[in-house]
Design goal:
Strand content: over 45%
CATH topology of the largest domain: Methylamine Dehydrogenase, Chain H
CATH architecture of the largest domain: 7 Propeller
Strand order of the largest sheet: 5-4-7-8
Distance between the termini: 71 Å
């Protein structure tokens, strides 16, 4: 090869190096050449995590060739339509803005199962209690002048009759802490093992399970408290109920002084004034020390922090509510609007407004999603919008949905449908 050609090739490579090197360096540093503006712009990053894991990611309708958890780099700034897809689940969709030089996060996005509700029973359910491990459902039905108690295994549909008694419209069902025992609490009290063996207990007073120990149950009677050990059948008397109490050692009272209502911490000789409230009829809804949730005149909610200098945190119209013990947050509704309140910072977040009457509210256990029921549908809402719009999803639609129960782990929702016939349904939300 002639010298001139060798020099030409050499200098050609040198020139190519000086052309490509800046491009490669800028590309590595997160810059991309935008032909429309004829300039280099800095890219952004999108980080996504989701439950369940391994969810396929789509951007603007095209596969990103990534499954969650995913970190998508070198994205040109702009608005992207994000879709998260997994078999047997409802997709999650939202729009996000990618900003140059910044990382946009979609954290803990939850995909819900696209499941068909299961029919549990078509009896007129009055009360239901879900086993802590969801292996059994206890429910009561009223037939004429009789109340019957049944068990059902959701996994198989098998039902077991427990007992029947005279009609009791105020009957309540309670599982023990670990689900070994079922208490039928009404005008008469009955106690059963989960294998439907009756345990004889006194019908006097009120019974309550220990909150942590499965085999202990307490009976409030006029002259004290009895503690029954279900394993040893020993009965002992105690001075006070030893269940964990948010106001252990205190005796809180609501006192109408003629002008307003006082919350007092009363002892034998005196009392400490905790808070002064407007006049009205009050009902205690929830206590989770130091927080106290009250209903005023059946249509107003008051949330108090009894340890704060100014105890009143929230005063709002509301007839429906649910308390999230994990995050100390309240969700409430006046029947059409849903709002959350964070006790830590006093922040309120408007969630949705429904044209239909809202019939129930439930936090999912993690405190990031809210189950909202109207007269015709069951929907879930994100508490905070991570995309440009708050994601919501209709999970089930029926003619008339009434009572809703959510399992302790938040995996299943049970609800009554009243039209065209009464039916108890179960909807699996997630695994």
């Amino acid at each position: 090869m002639k010298r001139i050609w060798r020099e030409f090739i050499f200098w050609g490579f040198v020139g190519l190096f000086f052309i490509l090197a800046p491009y490669i360096l800028l590309n590595t540093a997160g810059y991309r050449y935008q032909f429309g503006s004829a300039r280099f712009i800095r890219t952004g990053v999108l980080s996504i995590s989701a439950s369940p894991r391994s969810v396929a990611v789509f951007l603007n309708g095209d596969s990103a060739d990534e499954n969650t958890p995913a970190v998508l780099k070198n994205l040109i700034p702009g608005t992207y339509a994000v879709e998260l897809v997994r078999d047997e689940h409802h997709p999650w969709r939202g729009e996000v803005d990618i900003i140059q030089g910044e990382t946009t996060f979609l954290n803990n996005i939850m995909l819900f199962l696209a499941d068909t509700p299961d029919l549990i029973t078509q009896e007129a359910i009055q009360e239901i209690a879900i086993h802590p491990n969801e292996e059994l459902i206890a429910y009561s039905i009223n037939i004429g002048a009789i109340t019957q108690i049944w068990l059902q295994a959701p996994s198989t549909g098998e039902t077991t009759f427990i007992h029947e008694q005279s009609l009791d419209t105020n009957l309540m069902l309670h599982w023990s802490a670990e689900g070994g025992y079922l208490l039928v609490d009404g005008e008469q009290n009955y106690l059963y093992t989960k294998n439907v063996q009756e345990i004889q207990i006194s019908d006097r007073g009120e019974w309550e399970f220990d909150q942590t120990q499965d085999h202990l149950v307490y009976q409030n009677i006029d002259d004290g408290v009895n503690k029954l050990n279900l394993e040893t059948e020993d009965v002992s008397s105690i001075e006070a109920l030893v269940l964990p109490s948010p106001f252990e050692g205190s005796n809180l009272q609501l006192v109408d002084n003629g002008h307003n209502v006082e919350i007092r911490d009363v002892n034998k000789d005196d009392y400490a004034l905790i808070a002064i409230l407007p006049a009205g009829h009050y009902e205690l809804l929830k206590e989770d020390a130091p927080y106290l949730l009250l209903s005023r005149n059946s249509h107003e909610l008051l949330l108090l922090n009894l340890e704060a200098e100014q105890p009143k945190l929230l005063e709002a119209s509301g007839t429906l509510w649910d308390w999230q013990s994990k995050t100390r947050e309240l969700v409430y509704s006046d029947g059409h609007e849903v709002t959350t309140f964070e006790t830590e910072n006093g922040h309120s977040e408007f969630i949705t407004r429904q044209s239909e009457s809202i019939t129930s509210l439930h936090w999912l256990p993690e405190g990031e999603h809210i189950l909202v029921t109207t007269e015709t549908n069951l929907s879930v809402f994100e508490q905070f919008a991570q995309a440009k719009q708050r994601f919501s999803l209709v999970l089930a639609e029926h003619l008339a949905i009434s009572t809703v129960w959510l399992s302790d782990n938040g995996n299943d929702a049970y609800y009554l449908v009243e039209e065209p016939t009464i039916a108890l349904m179960r909807l699996e939300l997630r695994k």
